[in-house]
Amino acid sequence: MITKRLLFATFLLALLFLPNFHVQASSLIKILLVPGHDNEIWGSQYGNIKEADMNLVLATKIYNLLKSDKRFHVWITRDSMGYTKEFADYFSSNKQEIISFEQASKKKLQNKINDGSFVEKIDVQHNVATPNMAVRLYGINKWADENKIDAVIHIHFNDYPRENKWIKGIYKGFNIYMPEGQMVNSVESIKLAKKIFLQISKKYIPSTYEKEMGGLTPDQSLIALGSNGTLLESVRSVLIEYGYIYRFGNSLVRHQMYTNMANLTVAGLKNYFFGK
Ligand SMILES: [Zn+2]
């Protein structure tokens, strides 16, 4: 008898809590963090500091901050061992689908350009992604669309075309790339970019590189931002260049910057999603 009652009570409790749990789980804000580049092609370098490693340290700090907040569900594409299992598996078992996705998206955009409904603009010059990296970046977009990610944050450090990479360059400051106004995910991505910009600019100056237009730069060609219409309207994306790599040669300065930038980025994200 007692057992029966207990079972019934458990059943009632389960009824009470299950729907709640379901609502909560589905209303979590889904964030994907992409520390730029990887161990094979590491982006820019200054002395023995590689950009991909810096990106990973900062992304991991952001990851830990978001993970400690129950309102977020957060993913990261890489850890200290390389691509996480989820992404490594996704890239290898969906390679053909990703290539078809890329080609179909490019064709669709070309049709829009041909009929005049999309106007191409000249962006800041970027390094062209290698074919392998392009598959990964389009793969990340495809995965983000399929998993209904709310925001993708790409984490990078910068350099600019110059002759001697072993000496410090002249530019400084951070820069946030956001989807150009014609892109389907631009409206909300731009709002998010501005919220993060407001926070970071409390402690750091925006890029002094004239092509980066004061630290908030619209862009059509970066795959990360959903070029060729590869991110859905609801998938916000920003690519943050947290600063010129040669400014962070000093280990103390670099580590203080990681902590500051992680806190400021998360503050910007929270302001955007929870309104302030
Ligand atoms: Zn980079």
List strands and helices in order, with pairings.
Blueprint: H1 2-26, E1 29-35, E2 45-46, E3 49-50, H2 51-67, E4 72-76, E5 78-79, E6 82-83, H3 85-93, H4 95-114, H5 131-146, E7 151-158, E8 175-179, H6 186-200, E9 216-219, E10 236-244, H7 251-274
Helix pairs in contact: 2-7, 4-5, 6-7
Bound molecules: zinc ion.
Zinc ion (ZN) is lined by residues 36-37, 43, 51, 156.
Protein architecture, described:
The chain has 276 residues and is of the alpha/beta class. The protein has a single domain, classed as 3-Layer(aba) Sandwich (Aminopeptidase). Helices cover 46% and strands 17% of the residues. It contains 7 helices and 10 strands. The strands form 3 sheets. The chain has a 6-stranded mixed sheet, covered by helices on one side. A two-stranded antiparallel ribbon has the order 2-3. The longest helix is centred in the first third of the chain and has 25 residues. It is globular, with a radius of gyration of 21 Å. About 2% of the residues have low confidence. The site of zinc ion has 5 residues, from loops.
